[in-house]
Amino acid sequence: MKNALVVDDNDVNRILATRLLSKLGWTVAEAACGEDALAWLRANTAQLVLLDVSMPTMSGQEVCRHIRDGNLGGAGIKVVAYTAHAMNEEIAEFLSGGFDTVLLKPMSRDRLAEMLISQGFPP
Question: pTM score, two decimals?
Fold first, then answer.
């Protein structure tokens, strides 16, 4: 079973990502903030975390650092920066900060599927 956690403080973005992943065969949990995401990952495993970068109280970069430092979510977990920030230097910063890849907003089913394949998740 493919388990994912979608973390986004924007309800519409979170619901869209959850629906698209579900249609691609994933079981999806949701969190509206970094603190909730970390609590969920301490108690559950996932193969994928789709993590909004710009959230109040705890940024996606901070959440990613906690996931990596605490080995949260299980071995081999992929953490994807989900953001509208598309500048090359920002993408490089996300990748050097522990994210596996970057998925740009707005999300489409095709771009999501391409990202999943690139990260080793067959359709």
Answer: 0.96
